[in-house]
Amino acid sequence: MTDADDMLVFETTLDAPPEKVWRALTIPEYLERWLQPPADTALDVIASEENRRVSYRWREPAPVDGPAIEDSVVTFELTPQEDGRTGFRLTHAPLAVPAAANSNDSVALMLRAA
């Protein structure tokens, strides 16, 4: 999928059954309440397995004075636990756009120093 340095993985156990966690992940009003994505962020479902896994394409608008932000994928995985709780895993990848191999950023820095 992507290099491990370019992704965020968070795992925990939630004190709620998978069905309740699923609603929090898939009902837009609930998702926005706890996730609070930046304004104008688009979340499009790209894969879903009810009460088990949902993946969103995360699209942030490009900043006015900066380069476009690469789309990323946010995946939530739910695992039912014997005690009625839910194993929760969040993966967000990629987190950063790697610099191009032919990037000229250092040239601008050298010109300013001259």
Automatic annotation (TrEMBL):
<protein>
    <recommendedName>
        <fullName>Activator of Hsp90 ATPase homologue 1/2-like C-terminal domain-containing protein</fullName>
    </recommendedName>
</protein>
<dbReference type="InterPro" id="IPR013538">
    <property type="entry name" value="ASHA1/2-like_C"/>
</dbReference>
<dbReference type="InterPro" id="IPR023393">
    <property type="entry name" value="START-like_dom_sf"/>
</dbReference>
<comment type="similarity">
    <text>Belongs to the AHA1 family.</text>
</comment>
<feature type="domain" description="Activator of Hsp90 ATPase homologue 1/2-like C-terminal">
    <location>
        <begin position="45"/>
        <end position="101"/>
    </location>
</feature>
<feature type="domain" description="Activator of Hsp90 ATPase homologue 1/2-like C-terminal">
    <location>
        <begin position="15"/>
        <end position="38"/>
    </location>
</feature>
<dbReference type="Pfam" id="PF08327">
    <property type="entry name" value="AHSA1"/>
</dbReference>
